[in-house]
Each structure stands twice: as C-alpha cells, then as structure tokens.
Amino acid sequence: MAHHKDAIKRDRQNTKRNAYNRHYRTLMRGTVKKLRAIVADGDGAAAAAALPNAVSIVQKIASKGVIHKRQAARRVSRMAKAVNAALKA
Question: Alpha-carbon distance 13 to 58, whole Å?
Fold first, then answer.
C-alpha cells in the first residue's frame, strides 16, 4: 500500500485509467467478435455495413492510447480482408 501522497494519487489515477482502458478494450473485442460472426455466416453485405463501425472503434481507442497504433492497423487490415473475402464468396 502506498504511503506517500503522490504514490496514493498515482494509485488512484492508475485505477481510474485501468477501468477506462478495460471498458474500451472490451467494447472493441465485442465489436470485432460480432463482425467475425457476421463474416462466418457468409453475409457479405451485412459485414460490409458493420465494418465502418468496427474500424471506427478500433481507431478511436488507438488514438486514445488504449491499444498500440500498429495493433489497430493490424486489426483493421484483418477485418477488411475478411469482409472482402465474404463479399467475393
């Protein structure tokens, strides 16, 4: 347990930031999971409609620093690739 005033504040900040980051990371994972489920069903049109929302969420949390920008780029690329494959099939 922290005893110094600044250490107590740092602990309080870390707790708050952890909750914020966890919320947005969970939101991102759920959105990506829903998109993958749509792609797995083979509904290319619905997947193409859901892609912009998923991309927006991933890029937003990358801009906030919750995930790394390269991780965001990788996730967006994989989602787009999956949607394009679903549209072709």
Answer: 24
| pTM of the predicted model as reported, rounded to 2 decimal places | 0.86
* Residue 33 tokens, joined: 């999971």
pLDDT in tens, 6-39: 999 999 999 999 999 999 999 999 999 999 999 9
What DSSP designation does 67 have?
S
Domain ranges, ordered by start, for the chain: 23-88
41 close to 88: Cβ distance less than 8 angstroms = no
- Is the Cβ–Cβ distance between 45 and 9 less than 8 Å? no
Q: Is 74 helix (H, G, I), strand (E, B) or coil?
A: helix
